[in-house]
């Protein structure tokens, strides 16, 4: 028992040290722009391996710009599309997480019923619906791996609270806009504006910003479908909602 207690103590100390490390990293981001995220490094490795197999077909676009060099239209569009309550909540919307969990359970039950009714057809995994805020998305992309476990999800929630405690909303959104994925090897608002509209992020129109915001849940999918009717329709809806977003 004494050995077990010592082991548990070391485990708790290691966990506390890890949280202090994460807190220090986040505090540094208040004054230093992060050069890359955990997700970007993972993608860079994947694309490098892929390009090596295709004789050097390498593509990577990323450029950090200050928040003032990103069109206010894009700030509003991303909030309207991804997290309408961003400026009101404290990083986590518990009600949205609960609703997402219930929706995922219903989808899983439906998928299981369909599989039972059609045993000869290959079963398809139910699509998982997320309830993540912009802060949670940033926490996950900045510092965590892409694995889906309860432990990683719990760490994501802790990091989200740290981000909201140490950084203000504008800084959180500035880092998010500069690091989020907008296609394969396309990261940040400046790279996205150049990739899709051949102009700097500061000159994006309201509709262009809305189109970029709509891409965020599935950037690689929409990158190959620029003429998507859904993309155009949804962009129109987001453009209409942008007027309701008040930036700090």
TrEMBL record:
Pfam families: Transgly (PF00912). Transmembrane segments: none annotated. It is found in: Cell inner membrane. InterPro entries: Glyco_trans_51, Lysozyme-like_dom_sf, PBP_transglycosylase, Pep_trsgly. GO terms for biological process: cell wall organization; peptidoglycan biosynthetic process; regulation of cell shape. The keyword Nucleus does not apply. Its EC number is 2.4.99.28. One of its GO terms (molecular function) is peptidoglycan glycosyltransferase activity. It is an enzyme of class 2 (transferase). The keyword Transmembrane applies. Residues 61-242 form the Glycosyl transferase family domain. It catalyses: [GlcNAc-(1->4)-Mur2Ac(oyl-L-Ala-gamma-D-Glu-L-Lys-D-Ala-D-Ala)](n)-di-trans,octa-cis-undecaprenyl diphosphate + beta-D-GlcNAc-(1->4)-Mur2Ac(oyl-L-Ala-gamma-D-Glu-L-Lys-D-Ala-D-Ala)-di-trans,octa-cis-undecaprenyl diphosphate = [GlcNAc-(1->4)-Mur2Ac(oyl-L-Ala-gamma-D-Glu-L-Lys-D-Ala-D-Ala)](n+1)-di-trans,octa-cis-undecaprenyl diphosphate + di-trans,octa-cis-undecaprenyl diphosphate + H(+). SUPFAM superfamilies: Lysozyme-like. Pathway: Cell wall biogenesis; peptidoglycan biosynthesis. GO terms for cellular component: peptidoglycan-based cell wall; plasma membrane. Keywords: Cell inner membrane, Cell membrane, Cell shape, Cell wall biogenesis/degradation, Glycosyltransferase, Membrane, Peptidoglycan synthesis, Transferase, Transmembrane, Transmembrane helix. It is a single-pass membrane protein. Belongs to the glycosyltransferase 51 family. PANTHER family: BIOSYNTHETIC PEPTIDOGLYCAN TRANSGLYCOSYLASE (PTHR30400:SF0), MONOFUNCTIONAL BIOSYNTHETIC PEPTIDOGLYCAN TRANSGLYCOSYLASE (PTHR30400). Peptidoglycan polymerase that catalyzes glycan chain elongation from lipid-linked precursors. This is Biosynthetic peptidoglycan transglycosylase. It comes from Hydrogenophaga crocea.
